[in-house]
Each structure stands twice: as C-alpha cells, then as structure tokens.
Design goal:
The protein is of the alpha/beta class. Helix content is 27%, strand content 26%. The strands form six sheets. Strands 11, 12, 13, 14, 15, 16 and 27 form a seven-stranded mixed β-sheet that branches. Strands 1, 2, 3, 4, 5 and 6 form a six-stranded antiparallel β-sheet that branches. α4 packs across α5 and α12 (380-390) runs parallel beside α13. The longest helix has 22 residues, at 528-549. The relative contact order is 0.09. The chain binds flavin-adenine dinucleotide. The site of flavin-adenine dinucleotide (FAD) has 38 residues, from α9, β17 and α14.
C-alpha cells in the first residue's frame, strides 16, 4: 500500500499544527537537524523523543513482512510519533529523513507537560495518537508473528497475552498450514520448539514467558520511584479510574498489573450498559482510553507485573513483586478484581467466546436464537439467565450439581423455572467434556449419582458458578468475607486488626490506609460503571486518610 493512500484514508491522523500551536511547541522543545537518510527514530527504541517537523519530509517504515516498507510520509507542521511515546514502550515503526530535515525535538517529560498545560493542543496530540493506534491495529501493521499449534496451551497463552496487551501480531497455525515447514526451516526452528515469537526476523523467542516477551517488545515498564503516594494493584476499570483521579490530583501513582490493563472488562467484546456510549463500546477500547488518560496525567502502569505479597511495615504498605523487587507506598488500593469460576473441564478455555459464555445478554441470546443451549449453575444468576434465554432459544437445559433447585435459588425464580415449558432442569448433573473444531458443538454431561455420561449436541454453554476474588496475595490482617472478598467500611470497624480510634472510611479495609474497590470488594456491584465509581471514590478517601494522618 502506497503511503499517499494511507494519508488520504486517514486524514485525521496527520493534522497540521497552525502557526500559534507551533509557537507553543517551540517553548517545550529544542531545534534539531537530521541529514538525508538518517534514522530519526529506530523501531524498537525505548522512550524516544517526540518530533514536530519544521522543514523537510520524513518516511515512516514498518516491518510486517520482514522487509522494511514505507507506509507513510510526514510533512512540515506534522507530528512524528505514536502512543508508545507516552507509555514509554517501544514503537514498531522507524522514521527516516528524506532530504535534510529540521524538527522541534520534544523529550517525553515535555510532551506530558504540553498535554497538561495546553489542553487544546494536548487534545489534538492525544486524538492523533489514538487514531494512529487504531490504524496500526486495523491494518495489522506488525512485525510480529506467533507460530504454533492451535492445540498448544502455550501458544494460546502467548496469543492471549499479546491480544490483551493490544499488540498486533500475525498468527501462523501449524495445523493444516503447508507453508510453515519452510518458514520454520528458514528461521532455524524445529517444530518441537514451537510456539515461537518472531520479530521482523531480528529475533526469535522460543516459548517465551509473558514477562520475557514483554521485555523484548519493550512493553514492560519497571516501577521508577522509590516511594509512591498511592499504589494500585490491578488495572481493571476500578484500578485504572483510581489512577486517573489520583495522578490528575497530583499524587505519585503506580498501577501494578499482572497481565494487561483492562481486567475483565477488557475481555468483553461490547459493553452496552456503560453510560455515555449509546451504541456500546468494546472493553478493549474503553481500557485503552482510560490507560492513555492515566498515563497522560503521569500515572505509571507497570505490566506484566504480578504482586505476590503485601506487608505493612510501620504503617506503610510494602508490595512484593514476582521478580523479587519491592514497591513502597503511603497508601494502597486493592483493585485486583475477580474471575468467573471456570468449569472443571480441561479444554474449556479454548471455547471461551466461541460457545462458552459467562454472561447472557441480548448479544449472546441473538447468537443462539432458535437453538438448544445449556446453562450451568444453581444460584440466582443462573436462574435469571435461564429464564431470559428461554425467551430467545428453542430449549434451555439447566444443569445443577445438587438435587434441589430451590436450595440456592430464590423461590420465586425456582417456581418460574418450573413453570417455563422450554426449560428442563437436570439435577445432579455436571459438564465433564467439551468438543468442537473452532467452535463448541457438543458437550459431555455426567450424572454424579449414577456416574453415567453422554455427549449431547449444543453450540452454547452459559456458566454462572460464582466468582473467585483475587486475594491470595493479601496478608491475614486484611479481613475477608466467607467467600474471600475484601471487607471494607463499617463491616471492619470491630476487626481485631483495626487499630485506629476513628471508624474506617467507606472503602477502607481492616488495615488503615489500605483501601479496596471494584469486584474484589465484598458487597460491591459487579459492573464496569460501579467499579469505575468506586475507583474514583477511593481516591477521595485516600486524600481524607492523608489529611487525618497529617501526611
Ligand atoms: C466477559 C465479561 C463481560 C462483561 N460484560 C459486562 C458488561 O457488559 N457490563 C458491565 O457492567 N459489566 C460487565 N462485566 C463485569 C465487569 O467487567 C467487571 O465488573 C469489572 O471489570 C470489574 O472491574 P475491577 O477493576 O473491579 O476488576 P477486574 O476487571 O477483574 O480487574 C482486576 C485486574 O487486577 C489484576 N490482578 C489480579 N490479581 C493481581 C495481582 N496479584 N497482581 C497484579 N494484578 C492483579 C487482573 O489481572 C485484572 O486485570 C463483564 C465481565 C466479563 C468477564
């Protein structure tokens, strides 16, 4: 694709700054010149400077085919950079001077100052960067290839990790792909070494761990400060929102995230009930936007960076990370969320989103209208889903482990289920196997009384077997409810660990200065909007805590 095509297709991605805006840029930058053919920014370099072209032209080069290819040409008064310039991660594109080029050179910290101090210009820069992320993703302009078998759990892990981190890559499935033998030979890899990740044939990683891969790609950012005002564990909607409020209110803020920013919301293809998005928004896009917003205010987001342990020493939280490093902070927000409990079936993750669902909304209902579906679970969430799905599908099989539907379900729901003709309740029944190529097409159901099993055809299974909170890293002093969710506010006022002569703040845990927000919190409403609300609220309470402590 020629670069002028891209420029015409995406005019918003190369707005020209006007004279007044260039005068502002000049205040935050210094002049620099490049000779013709000189590489101004090398693909893969970390923390590059941001440029605005004063005179001359610049070629933007990508490497998705393994060979350098010009995709874009930038002209005077235009910006040279993408979102990696704010996050500190590596860009996949090189920029080369065509003829002599003069630029305004803006170091990363000044780019942030422009965004903070000059909102109008800052908005133009941010919208351009967001647009460029989108273009890179839509056009799959990536030098990365993952090669492996679709049946390999590690290949799934790597693809899942890259996907959640919004890193585009090309996927080469060894199954049924005749060209892969040739390719593997060319890069000197045996089939047994797969999955492999190949970058523009510069480097090849054999079955890398998530951290190793992130470091190689330049998307891992280690904590920079010695002491933070607020450390946030988890970059789901609650943690990210807290980071926006905290950093915008001047607190030194770090978010520690074990996989990728976005949390559960990031896995939702369309959130229909988030206010302000009448046509819905993908969880992925929402997460990318909040992440950029937090980074714009200067919050650090360190990912992948798993928190293994929390200690409180002299009242200060000390956070132990997976690589042995420690982070110190004055306050801590537990925003580590929860996961829907998975079925105890070996290959169930393979069908997530392609036949196995953890929600029953109009979107899922549409996908299986007129067919037979299975709902698993004996509590209200499963009951509500069964009744809702019965209106859209031919038949709902409701599987419960025990023998009595009314045991864990409200009576009115159990009665409505019994009265709904196209719901069949199968008691003492569990799913013990799942199968299908590319999409679920049958499941094995087992009667745990008679110990007999049979395969039944179905294209959709909805499971509602409870959520598991991510709290295994918390110390004993932080009180949990009987299901493992973190207790806060009045419910911990009489806890033996509560040491203050004031009542705990609303989202404060049994440890003063340690707060909890979102799905991980006992009694919270498990929704994106409420997680966002709690994240914002937690920061207001952190300020109250600092005032109280005289910090
Ligand atoms: C498929 C799906 C669809 C959904 N659809 C909707 C919807 O349409 N509307 C709606 O309102 N809600 C929806 N939800 C629910 C919603 O996503 C959650 O309520 C919301 O994401 C909770 O946000 P949170 O920040 O509290 O936690 P989470 O989103 O769970 O985020 C917690 C984060 O903490 C990280 N973490 C956990 N432990 C550690 C550790 N030890 N160290 C570092 N990081 C850690 C996790 O990796 C995760 O990124 C959906 C959920 C799912 C799974």
């Amino acid at each position: 694709m020629a670069h002028h095509d891209l420029r015409t297709r995406f005019p918003e991605a190369n707005l020209k700054l006007d004279h007044h805006q260039l005068l502002i840029i000049e205040k935050y930058s210094k002049r620099k010149s490049f000779k013709s053919g000189e590489t101004m920014i090398e693909a893969g370099a970390r923390d590059p400077n941001f440029y605005v072209i004063k005179s001359g032209e610049v070629e933007v080069i990508e490497y998705s085919s393994g060979n350098p290819r010009s995709i874009w040409r930038s002209y005077p008064q235009e910006l040279l950079g993408d979102a990696s310039f704010l996050s500190g991660s590596a860009s996949h594109l090189s920029r080369v001077a065509i003829g002599d080029v003069e630029v305004f050179e803006i170091p990363p910290e000044n780019l942030r100052r422009i965004i903070d101090d000059q909102p109008k210009l800052g908005n133009i820069i941010l919208s351009t960067l967001i647009m460029r992320i989108q273009i890179m993703r839509d056009l799959k302009l990536t030098p990365l290839q993952v090669i492996g078998s679709r049946f390999s759990a590690d290949a799934f892990r790597i693809r899942d990790f890259l996907g959640k981190n919004r890193v585009s890559f090309a996927w080469l499935d060894l199954e049924g792909n005749l060209d892969t033998d040739e390719l593997l030979k060319r890069i000197g890899v045996r089939e047994a070494d797969t999955p492999v990740v190949v970058c523009r044939h510069d480097w090849t990683l054999r079955n890398p761990g998530n951290r190793e891969l992130a470091e190689k790609l330049g998307i891992f950012t280690a904590p920079k400060e010695e002491l933070y005002d607020l450390a946030i564990v988890g970059a789901g909607p609650a943690g990210l929102t807290a980071a926006v409020y905290s950093s915008s209110e001047g607190l030194r803020t770090i978010v520690l995230e074990r996989t990728a920013s976005g949390g559960q919301a990031g896995t939702s293809s369309r959130i229909e009930n988030y206010p302000g998005f009448p046509t819905g928004v993908s969880g992925d896009e929402l997460a990318a936007r909040i992440t950029l917003q937090a980074q714009k205010f200067g919050a650090e987001i360190s990912s992948p960076c798993e928190v293994r342990k929390l200690e409180v020493i002299n009242g200060y939280p000390v956070i132990h990370l997976e690589d042995g490093a420690k982070v110190f902070s004055k306050c801590l927000l537990v925003a580590s969320g929860a996961s829907y409990r998975r079925l105890e079936v070996n290959n169930c993750t393979q069908f997530e989103g392609v036949g196995l669902y953890y929600a029953a909304t109009a979107i899922e209902a549409q996908m299986c209208s007129g067919s037979d579906v299975i709902v698993v679970g004996g509590a209200n969430s499963a009951g509500q889903a069964a009744i809702f799905l019965a209106q859209h599908t031919r038949k709902v099989h409701l599987l419960i482990r025990g023998s009595d539907l009314a045991k864990n379900m409200s009576r009115y729901l159990a009665r409505r289920i019994e009265q709904t003709e196209n719901i069949e309740v199968l008691t003492n029944t569990e799913i013990s196997g799942m199968a299908g190529v590319g999409h679920l097409d049958r499941v094995e159901i087992r009667n745990n009384r008679s110990d007999t099993a049979q395969w039944v055809p179905t294209t959709a299974v909805f499971t509602f077997i409870g959520a598991v909170p991510h709290t295994d890293w918390l110390p004993e002093g932080i009180e949990l409810d009987q299901n493992g969710f973190v207790k806060t506010g009045q419910t911990v006022a009489n806890s033996p660990s509560w040491s203050m002569n004031r009542p705990p703040f609303l989202l404060e845990t049994s440890h003063p200065g340690v707060f909890a927000a979102g799905d991980v919190r006992s009694g919270s409403i498990k929704r994106v909007a409420s997680a966002v609300g709690e994240g914002a609220m937690a920061v207001a309470l952190v300020h109250e805590y600092f005032n109280y402590q005289g910090m």
